[in-house]
Every structure is written in C-alpha cells, then in structure tokens.
Design brief:
Layout (H helix, E strand, L loop, with lengths): L1 E3 L5 H14 L14 H12 L5 E7 L2 E10 L8 E8 L8 H15 L4 E7 L3 H9 L3 E12 L2 E11 L5
Helix pairs in contact: 1-2
C-alpha cells in the first residue's frame, strides 16, 4: 500500500530510516551516525503537512513501513516550485517495484501541487538507484566530483532532475 504519511507513522518511520541507513551502502548517513527519534519524526511530519510543496510518501506491507520517499519543497519564492527527494527501501523489499510505485504517487502529488521540478543526488555507483530514477523519468544533469567519502574512498554523485508539466 502506498500512502502519504500521518503523524501516527512517526515511530515506524524513525525505525525504517534507521534500518535503511544501517543496510544501504549509499545513504548520506552512515549506520548509527544519526539518531532518529519518533518525537523528532512526528514534529517533522507535522511541519511537512503544513507545507504545500513537501510530503512524505510511504510504502506499507502487512502494517509495516517498508519504504519512503520524502519530497522537501524549496523555501524561497524562487525555488518553491521544486522539491528535493530522499528515498529509502528496506533491503528485503528492493527490486520488487516498490520504488516505482512511490515515484508514481510522487508524480501524481507533484502535479496536483504545481511542483515543476523534482531533483535528487545519488552516488554514481548506485546502479539500482540510478536505474530506478531513470525509469521514473529523471535525467542526469551533472556530476558532483568527490562529494562523499564512503569507506575511505571519495565517490562522485549525480545531480538528477525531472521537469513536470504544470503551471505555477
């Protein structure tokens, strides 16, 4: 089931974010680096609910969150037509179409909320992520050289973006 998050999902979202950061090779935060509490997530969810250009979409299976897609809208008038994305899917559920469904719902929501630009960054070596984003219509717009240090190695990230047909 794909849906937009509710404050009651705060504890499950905090747990999922921690799980994804512990499992994934290419998330920004290393395992254990960030302490995500249910109360902090509840506040974040409530703040996002008040913004017209931000949302968190979650994937749920058997009453458990298994994936998320955060869209954080620009805060200034000059960029409030765009949203920066962060996505994560629990390792046992990757490669099963969940990411595709999350991005389909994001597209529907973005058009409904007059979002014209979606953007994200991803590690160049993240083949599965790059494939998902391209499948969802994102294009590589540039490369951030040596933008992250992962396991003692400097790695590059792609800037990726997608423009939507909507009027502001």
């Amino acid at each position: 089931m794909i849906r937009h998050i509710k404050p009651s999902h705060a504890e499950a979202l905090a747990s999922l974010i921690t799980q994804v950061e512990n499992e994934a090779d290419y998330m920004l935060f290393e395992p254990g680096e960030r302490q995500t509490t249910p109360e902090a997530q509840r506040k974040r969810i409530e703040a996002i609910k008040k913004e017209d250009n931000s949302t968190i979409i979650v994937a749920e299976k058997d009453n458990q969150l298994i994936g998320f897609l955060m869209a954080i809208g620009g805060a200034a008038r000059r960029n409030n037509h765009s949203a920066y994305l962060v996505a994560g899917i629990a390792s046992g559920h990757r490669g099963k179409g969940i990411g595709t469904k999350l991005f389909e719902e994001l597209d529907r929501w973005a058009r409904e909320h007059s979002i014209h630009r979606l953007e994200l960054t991803t590690v160049v070596k993240n083949d599965a992520g790059v494939a998902l984003y391209k499948k969802a219509g994102f294009k590589i717009e540039g490369t951030k050289k040596h933008s992250l240090l992962i396991n003692g190695e400097f790695v590059d990230e792609y800037y990726m973006g997608k423009l939507l047909d909507c009027k502001k």
